[in-house]
Design a protein that fits this description.
With 78 residues, the chain is an all-alpha fold. It is built from three helices and no strands.
Length: 78
């Protein structure tokens, strides 16, 4: 579990679902103007959080794949 998940106790999928609902609400013709600012702020927060989590996961996966590739090279050169 990454730092953002630890802070919120929520999964990536839960945050993505909330973002989707917010975007749908913001785009609705009957979106209450009084709620719009808070909805946009929350959506921006979720976008930043999700982006950080994706970047972190991508980095971890690349590191693991690089390690596996290096192990494979070591075995074939022995």
């Amino acid at each position: 579990m990454d730092d953002d998940s630890k802070k919120t106790g929520r999964s990536y999928e839960e945050d993505l679902e909330e973002l989707t609902k917010l975007v749908d609400g913001i785009g609705a013709e009957d979106c209450p103007l009084d709620s719009l600012e808070e909805m946009v702020k929350k959506a921006a927060y979720l976008i930043r959080t999700l982006r950080r989590r994706l970047t972190s996961t991508e980095t971890t996966v690349r590191e693991i794949l690089d390690q596996l590739e290096e192990e494979t090279k070591d075995r074939t050169s022995s």
